[in-house]
Amino acid sequence: MALNCGIVGLPNVGKSTLFSAITSTKAEAANYPFCTIDPNMGIVDVPDDRLEKIANIVKPERILPASVEFVDIAGLVKGASKGEGLGNQFLGHIRQVGIICHVVRCFEDGNIVHVSGRIDPLDDIQIIEYELAISDLETVQKRLSQMDKLLKSQDKGILQRAKAAKPVLEKLVPYLQEGQMARLANLEKEEIDVIADLHLLTLKQQLFICNVSEEELSRGLRNDHVKSVEEYAAKSQAKVVVICAQVEKEISELESKEEKAEFMESVGLEKSGLTKLIMAAYELLGLRTYFTAGVKEVRAWTFQEGMKAPETAGIIHTDFEKGFIKAEVYSSNDLFEFGSEAKVKEKGKLRLEGKEYVVKDGDVMHFRFNT
Questions:
Q1: pTM of the model as a whole
Q2: Where do runs of H (alpha helix) occur along the chain?
Q3: Rounded Cα distance, 108 and 184, in Å
């Protein structure tokens, strides 16, 4: 279950530069709106020091990290929900992603045109959120207009879903009319499930990416623009990552790990923007990592926190879940402490777990199953 991130923002905020940097893919970037029309896509490895440490002990033939897909979606503008700037097409692309990464310009530069003619991150955010909300409002109202017919259905399944969905949709209307995110309506999981087929944009988790200047990043400064975004995010159940797209671009152009580490140290960075972005997205979505380790391969797998052993086995293959018997489990921390799987067993740290075992972040697992 690879993480899927849609990078959105107004034109000329630095999102295509950021996309190119974090994916090392050449995305079209220019100093005018709508230079990105069709979404660019790139898949990157999830940085995880534990994977390499496991591989150094197990000595596999290959190492396979977890992956994240990034989608660079064209710059949205005011009126996108009504088709301005090819907005409907772009909003359709956003419906396919798992999390919205909203790049916000928090730097001053007279040489780079801002679509509104001024730097105002909160205004930028509100423009895009309003367009997402109005698009969702249209979707919700369309489904509500079909309710009379659905509530008369002879199909019991359709009838039950309609009865459950109607009050949820009615609850969302006033939020969306005010340009607010549906996720702020505090829906229960059951309520979200009955309208999941609508793929509402404003129910998606949102991560704000504050794009600052290299000087501010290297000096660890939080300018007023960043502070205003952080305050807004705290109220809207979102997270914030501060990056410099230009610095990320420079990091991506270096070839070796040593060169990248040296450059990052020179600008005062402990982690790259990509690493901070992925970590924040994992935390926001409740995603965790488990590992499989053998002589053929050591591999990282992404799972949802709270999943039980059979479900995580199903991430590898559905047959693993269907025929699940037991899972051999130990913590990667125990492997690092004792230095080998044999020593982990000797110390009694390897366990056999059944169907009710809730998998933990950092578990190393081997599944037993019937074919």
A1: 0.84
A2: 15-23, 49-58, 87-94, 121-145, 147-150, 156-177, 189-194, 214-218, 224-235, 245-252, 257-266, 273-285, 309-316, 318-322, 332-338, 341-346
A3: 31
